[in-house]
Amino acid sequence: MLSGKQRRYLRGLGHSLAPIVQLGKDGVTEGVVGALDAALSDHELIKVKLAQVIAPEQEAIAPELATRCKAELVGEIGHTLLYYRRHPHEPKIVLPRATKRAAHDE
After folding, report:
1. Residue 43: Cβ within 10 Å count
2. Label partner for 83 (CA 20 to 30 A): which of 3, 42, 51, 99?
3. What b-and-e string marks burial along 11-24, b requiring 16 or more CB atoms within 10 Å of the CB?
4. pLDDT recorded at residue 102
5. How many CA atoms lie within 13 A of 82 on its CB side?
6. pLDDT confidence of residue 60
7. Closest Cα partner for 48 from 70, 77, 26, 25?
8. What is the rounded CA–CA span in Å between residue 24 and residue 32?
9. Confidence bin at 86 (pLDDT 50/70/90)
10. pLDDT category, 103, cuts 50, 70, 90?
């Protein structure tokens, strides 16, 4: 579970990223989940662009993708989602330490 400070840090890093995975009118498919999983393994922090057609379903899709890929939904801006999953062996992103209060609150 990420602290607020860590989420802010990741959103700052994600600002300059281009979307790697695009979700089309077919919605969440095994192909999309596989692409998202592979992209998270390679990059740790990725953007997912949602098609205008499925944007109304965004509230349900965003957490579903996070759950299916074992990732954290870091942020949502418009039709773009930002996901993070730490690489298990060779992490590229070093997160700031969570404060004691934030760690206690969660």
Report:
1. 17
2. 99
3. eebbeeeebbbebe
4. 47
5. 18
6. 86
7. 77
8. 9
9. very high
10. very low
Written as one string, the DSSP assignment of the chain is: ---HHHHHHHHHHHTTPPP-EEE-TT-S-HHHHHHHHHHHHHHSEEEEEEPGGGGGGHHHHHHHHHHHHT-EEEEEETTEEEEE---SSS----PPPPPHHHHHH-
Residue type, 34: G
Task: Quote the CATH superfamily of domain 4-105.
Answer: YhbY-like (3.30.110.60)
| Token pair 């349900």 in the structure block, residue | 60
Q: What does the block give as tokens for 57?
A: 């379903």
Confidence of residue 100 (pLDDT cuts 50, 70, 90): low
Termini Cα distance of the chain: 8
Half-sphere exposure of 60 (CA within 13 A, CB side): 5
Specify the amino acid at residue 49. K
